[in-house]
Each structure stands twice: as structure tokens, then as C-alpha cells.
Design brief:
Elements: H1 2-12, E1 18-20, H2 25-31, E2 38-40, E3 53-56, H3 60-64, H4 68-76, E4 80-83, H5 90-96, E5 101-106, E6 116-122, H6 128-138, E7 142-146, H7 150-177, H8 183-203, H9 207-214, H10 220-254
Parallel strand pairs: 1-2, 3-4, 4-5, 6-7
Antiparallel strand pairs: 5-6
Bound molecules: NADP nicotinamide-adenine-dinucleotide phosphate.
Length: about 260
Amino acid sequence: MTKSLVTGLRQIFPDKSIKVYNRTADKVVELLTYNPKINRVDNYTDLCRDSSFVFLIIPTSGIFALETDFVSSILKSDSVIVSCANSLTIDKLTEVFPETKIVRLLPNINWQIKQGTTIFQTNSTISTTDLTELTDILTPITKLIEAKSDHEFDMLGKLTSCGPGLFTKIVDQLLTSFDISDDMQKQAVYHTLISTLNYLIDSEKPADKIISEVANKGGLTESGIIAAEKVLPDCFDFISKSMNEKLLERQQNLK
Ligand SMILES: NC(=O)c1ccc[n+]([C@@H]2O[C@H](COP(=O)([O-])OP(=O)(O)OC[C@H]3O[C@@H](n4cnc5c(N)ncnc54)[C@H](OP(=O)(O)O)[C@@H]3O)[C@@H](O)[C@H]2O)c1
């Protein structure tokens, strides 16, 4: 995720230096390939010497292990913690880092192509100015969607954060089942997929209206749609159920 963030930001703010800390220093050196303005620092506290947005793009266990020095520096410099850890709710973050300004973000890897989708929530300590500054930084690389509840965050976030992986798997299976392996043929299918999604978004038409524009009675599309209606509900219900179980397992581990 950090690679994706710094790659996206390089394209928008090529002259802006970004401080990065990772316990494995070589990983930060590797990031210079994606953004030459990376400035490697030696500890978490160095990230917030001045007022900053401090993105925590590490697992929950790493966030829980942050030392009190880090929290004091965040408060002293009036910095904002931006947690990207999935499953860690805004209430839990506020409990772990009391009195600090916190944004909970759930991004996806498409930050790197400036087409990310990011769900967010804030705690009550965040000011309108903080939020405006953060959205000014992120809007050029991602669509930002504020979740109204933890339930909405998880429900939508499952598909947006995992989407690049999950949708790629689905399209890949589609190509296999339709016996498409040649690169030129794959490009033709990808293009049809993108243009169909653009049509869905731009026209704002309901799915059944678009399907009826394509499927003639007794025709080829209709045969595919009828078959899809037989198998897809079970297939996607199963995927959704598996992901819900994983999410629940993570949430229970946090307790
Ligand atoms: N991948 C995604 O598409 C995605 C989407 C949304 C949210 N996220 C969230 O983003 C965070 C990072 O995910 P990622 O995909 O970037 O994972 P990743 O590639 O495995 O990177 C994890 C990073 O966290 C560091 N780390 C691991 N355990 C740590 C600990 N206990 N203390 C300090 N640092 C630790 C690792 O450092 P070392 O190199 O030293 O091991 C590594 O730099 C996770 O919280 C994940 O839920 C990821």
C-alpha cells in the first residue's frame, strides 16, 4: 500500500518530500524507485516532528505496539494519525490514541494509477481544516467516500479495498471459462468491461435496463444471462460469506 501511495503522490506532488519510516530500512530504500523524494527517517517519532498527516500503513499489531513517545509527538506537533489498518475501528483507534486527531482510511492499490477508492471515517477531534487539507492531498489520486457507520465501512470496504484483487480473479476466471488466452483477445474483453462499467456509471441506468438493451428474446445474451442467474447468486454469496467470516475472525482477535 505504501508503494501505491508514494507512486500516486509522486505524480501529483513531484517536488514534495515524504518522510517514511519502516523497521526494515531496506524497504524504504526500495521505495525510492517509486518516488525519489522519499526521505527515510529513523523512527516513528521523526515522522511527526512538524505538524503532519502520519499514515500508518502497517498491520494492527504494529499499531498497538507504538510507543507513548510517538503519541506524545503526535499531540505536541498537532499531527493527524491516518490509520490504514483494516478492522481497526475509529472508536478503537480513539481508545488506543486518546485525544489525538484520527482518520481511518481504507484504500486500495489503485492509488498508484490515481484511480483509488478510499473509504474513510474521522473521530470528533478532527477539524474541518484538517479534513480539507487531507482531502486536498488525496482527492487527485482517489475517490473518497465517508462511511456513515462501522457496518457501512466494513460492508463497502470489503469490496473496495479487496476489489482490485477480487475483480481481477473474477475476470481471470471468466477468460479461462471462455477459452480466451491470447493477449489481444484479453485486451478486447478488458475494453468491453471498462466501457460497460463507464456506461453503467455515466448513464446511471439500472442494471436490468442495460441488460434489456443487449438481450433479445431467445438470443445469445439471454442464454448467458439465464445461466448466470442460475449459478452466480450461490457463487457470490459464498465469496461474501467467506470474507465476512474472515472479517469477524479479525475483529474477534482484536477483542
Ligand atoms: N494490500 C492492500 O490492498 C490493502 C488495502 C487496504 C488496507 N490495507 C492495510 O494496509 C496495511 C499494510 O498492508 P500491506 O498490504 O501494505 O502489507 P505489507 O506489504 O505486508 O506491508 C506491511 C508493512 O508493515 C510492516 N510491519 C509488519 N508488521 C509490523 C509490526 N508488527 N510493526 C511494525 N511494522 C510492521 C512491514 O515491515 P517489515 O518489512 O519490516 O516486515 C511492512 O513494511 C495493513 O494494515 C492492511 O490491512 C492493505
